[in-house]
Design brief:
By secondary structure, the protein is of the alpha+beta class. Among the domains are: 26-154, Jelly Rolls; 159-434, Beta-galactosidase, Chain A, domain 5; 845-929, Sandwich (Immunoglobulin-like). The chain has 14 helices and 50 strands. The strands form 10 sheets. Strands 1, 16, 17, 18, 19, 20, 21, 26, 31, 32 and 33 form an 11-stranded antiparallel sheet that branches. The longest helix has 18 residues, at 629-646. The chain is globular, with a radius of gyration of 30 Å. Mean pLDDT is 93; it is low at 1-20 and 443-483.
């Protein structure tokens, strides 16, 4: 056994400071004992001391109370401030601090305004001697009681200044492999291993790792290089590693690790166990410290991924491209901000990654390139303690230790992933193949069999899903849940309330969202269309009548030429045109807008970003280019949609040429830049993925070219890391909630990491359903993902007892608090694919007739397309209770249509665009001759 070294001052770059650690909280104010000089602004009334504490009321906007100089505020360290309060106001709380109050010296918190006691904790920077406090308990009216305020000085138990590691030295090699992925161990160091893909070195472990624990009240850092280590390949083909040592307090420690191939291709399962023979307080337990690129490609990469937090090209993580400097550090984030418990990095056609179990809650350390150890590579780590009581977010320092009871093994399971690919898409596919999809939200329901392709033959690159059981998804025939907590009827009533009875509806006009005086009421064509769909599907005659009457009133407020463009929803489809007519006028407006849209692109097919207003932020200033795929797709999608609906072949050709240029510029890149009204052009964005999916789906519909479907699949996969496909928090809302962007509005606030914005996910959802209808390989998978997003949208929707916002979708959602917040958005964004969740008739369908790129559009379902002896037959399932239009592009003047065994049907031939408009009613078989 080697000589064992211990240190209680400075060892291997880990600093031991303030062995006393965090001090006990100081009671700043106990308001049952008096007001202590606190005063209120003019909006504060009836301020008094009661047996419960300081009581006051607000009669206006922006109430606050403020203190004199705080006598016993801890100085010199950061402060954890806790206050106990009950409120009947709103959810907005804020604490100001300092000798003079300013927005830059404040911290916000979310209030639970239920009139009950709650404790709120905020993190403040080191305070000055003359600091005062100001409490803003709400933005408006309410009654409040504050019992006490406490402050706790946060003093690190250990801080870190890690030394650069040396590459692992191999005197001998023990190897375990899973297809292309292999791990090689040197047999003598606990973390003396390296990972390879196809014999190419991808990453190295940390042979100089240290374990931190307390002995006699002081931290000790032990170098695991000094432990007695044995390693071997056992009879089952697993690599087993064991490390033993005795600490200065006499406790014997035993660490074991087993690494073996997993049943999924290119996956190594690793189980590590730590145990001590005496109780120990542990302050640093490095389950994994991995340096991708060490000894090989260094600090370069193709892409890297920390789902929900980072989605990188060859650029630094924790950069200020999407956040201001104060928020840029994302090296150790709170666990709930990770949409998937994984991290991955690729270089020149190969990737390496790590997956773990969220329930273990390690601190996930991610730095690319590595600026923690300065290894000259990248850093991936899983350390305990995690972020929470013992460690602050984005800090290497630890503030307190956690208890490891004697003779009680502590265990962590993780998986090494490896494989081939030029992007992070294969890594995301690998995660899904390993973990599957979560159950759809809500209890297990009826189990109705729905038609659809089977996943039994789905092959992902390097992986097979043929043996994979995804929860809630049968690979033999796609059996899945079909109702939510209260079923389809409840969903219809909830959305109907949004259209009819919320503040979004004003006498036949609708607001896009309810948010103060913003978004004024406007005529809308989509609102009547969505209401008629609900009326056709509800078994409540009274509610159906109310919906129909409101729809009719809305149509009286609408210019028929606006049947396509007048919308209050984020998902735009031509259903209102097919229901309410004026097709020719609407087509002309669509085509005119599309042709104008072509002028936004230059000869290279790029839409260059320019700061539109010198008084607004320049959202392109932090991007590495003056264009982005999502920024382009935002303009290209409506051009393609207009070409598909109109039948304008010249427009279609121009749009497809543009689409091909997008492929040339952006294949295998990160989706970004689709929300430059408030977000940097650089910011990774699920809305960019949505627009790109839809663009390529439309490209396929217009051309039949399967290369477009392949591109649509790629962009669909780029959105997967922005979905919560591993439940992040306690509470019903989590799975299938959507992170919209990996950035902050105006680089500052709100910071959207960890805060779902479901409307963006619902646009992605609609694009997924469009793709699923065409994708014979992965369609069933995309359908389930999309249904989960819709269900999460329903979960987040404001409930029926919220009179102003009932049935409306919140702009964002607080995951930990399980609270809907922000502007309340009209119901159409959720409703657009409600039919998919419950197996109802489609709101709208477009399909290829497989005849000279002809398309058919209908407000309903389209299937069973066939051609026999020159006659095309199509089954159309209509939902409207009256007649509606079907539009067929690629027709000729001699095209003849029959409906439900009748040889003719009311029709209108569009000579300009060679399209046939048919007026039909109900459901049945459409026949077409002379196409």
């Amino acid at each position: 056994m080697r000589a064992i070294s211990f240190c209680v001052a400075l060892f291997l770059g880990v600093s031991i400071v303030n062995a006393g650690a965090t001090a006990a909280p100081a009671l700043l104010y106990d308001f049952t004992e008096g007001m202590r000089g606190w005063t209120g602004n003019p909006r504060v009334t009836n301020m008094k001391i009661t047996d419960e504490g300081l009581y006051f009321e607000s009669g206006g906007v922006d109430p606050w109370i403020e203190s004199p100089r705080v006598q016993n505020m801890p100085l010199g360290d950061r402060v954890r401030l806790t206050l106990r309060m009950k409120s009947t106001g709103d959810r907005s709380g804020q604490i100001f601090y300092g000798a003079a109050f300013a927005a830059a010296r404040s911290a916000s918190f979310l209030v639970t305004p239920d009139g009950a006691w709650h404790e709120y904790t905020l993190l403040l920077p080191p305070q000055e001697r003359d600091t005062r406090l100001r409490l803003d308990p709400a933005q408006g009216e309410g009654a409040f009681t504050v019992a006490w305020i406490k402050a706790e000085a946060l003093r690190p138990l250990i801080t870190t200044d890690f030394k650069a590691p040396k590459p692992v030295v191999f005197d001998k090699t023990l190897e375990v492999a899973a297809e292309s992925l292999s791990l090689r161990h040197n047999g003598r160091d606990w973390d003396g291993y390296a990972l390879y893909v196809d014999d190419e070195l991808m990453a190295m472990g940390h042979a100089d790792a240290t374990l931190g624990f307390m002995v006699d009240g002081r931290p000790v850092m032990f170098s695991l290089r000094d432990a007695a280590v044995t390693a071997a390949i056992n009879d089952a083909g697993a690599l087993t590693v064991e490390a033993n040592f005795t600490d200065p307090g006499g406790a014997v420690w035993k660490l074991t690790r087993s690494i073996k191939p997993h049943s999924h291709a290119n996956t190594l399962r690793t189980v590590t166990t730590v145990m001590a023979e005496a109780d120990r307080e542990v302050c640093h337990l490095p389950w994994l410290t991995l340096f991708p690129g060490m000894g090989s490609f260094g600090e370069r990469k193709t892409q890297a991924l920390l789902p929900g937090v980072e989605y990188l090209e060859d650029e630094p993580s924790s950069s200020a491209a999407d956040f201001n400097a104060a928020q840029a550090d994302r090296r150790i984030v709170e666990d709930y901000k990770l949409t998937l418990p994984m991290m991955a990095l690729s270089h020149e056609g190969r990737y390496i990654g790590v997956v773990w179990n969220r329930a273990d809650k390690p601190a996930a350390v991610f730095d690319s390139p590595d600026r923690v150890f300065h290894s000259g590579a990248h850093l991936m780590g899983l350390w305990h303690p995690g972020v929470g009581d013992h460690r602050l977010e984005n800090e290497m320092a630890v503030y307190s230790a956690f208890t490891l009871p004697k003779n009680t093994p502590l265990q962590l399971e993780m998986f090494f992933l490896g494989g081939h690919g030029d992007s992070m898409v294969p890594a995301a596919q690998h995660y899904i193949a390993l973990r599957g999809l979560p159950e759809l939200p809500g209890p297990s329901l009826s189990g109705l069999e729905l038609p659809g392709p089977s996943l039994s033959g789905l092959e992902l690159p390097g992986l097979s899903l043929s043996g994979l059981e995804l929860p809630g998804l049968s690979l033999s025939g796609l059996s899945r849940e079909t109702e939510l907590v209260n079923g389809f009827d409840h969903a219809v009533r909830l959305l109907a309330a949004g259209w009819l009875d919320s503040d979004a509806h004003v006498d036949g006009l609708w607001r896009h969202a309810v948010w103060g005086d913003n978004f004024p009421p406007q005529p809308a064509a989509d609102a009547p269309a969505y209401m008629l769909w609900l009326a056709a599907h509800i078994d409540d005659d009274a509610l159906a009548t109310r919906l129909s009457k409101a729809a009719a009133r809305g149509l009286t407020r609408l210019n028929p030429a606006d049947n396509y463009l007048a919308s209050v929803s984020h998902v735009s489809r031509p259903t209102p045109v097919l229901l309410f007519g004026s097709i020719e006028n609407n087509v002309e407006r669509m085509v005119a807008a599309a042709r104008a849209g072509l002028n936004q692109f230059d000869a290279q097919g790029l839409r260059r970003y320019h700061q539109p207003d010198p008084n607004r932020p320049d959202y392109g200033r932090t991007h590495f280019a003056d264009h982005a795929n999502g920024y382009n797709a935002q303009a290209l999608e409506p051009i393609l949609a207009a070409a598909a609906f109109s039948g304008d072949t010249a427009l279609a050709e121009a749009a497809l040429r543009l689409l091909d240029k997008q492929t040339a510029h952006y294949a295998n890149t990160v989706p970004r830049g689709a929300q430059t009204w408030e977000m940097p052009l650089h910011t990774p964005d699920i809305l960019a993925a949505a627009r790109l999916i839809r663009a390529y789906v439309l490209g396929y519909l217009l051309s039949g070219c399967k290369d477009y479907l392949e591109q649509a699949r790629y962009w669909a996969w780029t959105g997967v890391p922005l979905l919560y496909l591993d439940h992040p928090v306690e509470g019903p809302v989590g799975a299938y909630a959507t992170i919209a962007v990996l950035g902050a509005t105006n680089w500052a606030a709100p910071n959207w990491i960890g805060q779902p914005v479901q409307w963006c996910g619902l646009v992605y959802r609609s694009a997924l359903h469009d793709l699923a209808a065409l994708d014979n390989e992965e369609g069933a998978f995309w359908n389930k993902v999309a249904k989960g997003i819709t269900i999460s949208g329903l979960q987040q929707t404001f409930p029926l007892d919220d009179e102003a916002r009932r049935g409306l979708l919140p702009d964002f959602f607080h995951l930990r608090e399980q609270v809907s917040d922000g502007p309340a958005i009209s119901p159409g964004t959720v409703q657009a694919h409600l039919h998919e969740v419950y197996g109802k008739t489609a709101y709208y369908t477009a399909a290829r007739l497989n005849e000279k790129n002809a398309l058919i559009h209908a407000p309903g379902g389209i299937d069973h397309i066939a051609k026999t002896g020159g006659v095309i037959t199509v089954r159309i399932t209509g939902w409207n209770k009256g007649p509606y239009w079907v539009r067929i592009t690629g027709a000729t003047p001699s095209t003849r249509a029959g409906w439900r065994n009748k040889p003719s049907v009311e029709s209108d031939y569009d000579k300009k665009y060679n399209a046939l408009n048919l007026r039909i009613e109900g459901s049945g078989i459409l026949t077409l001759k002379g196409m």
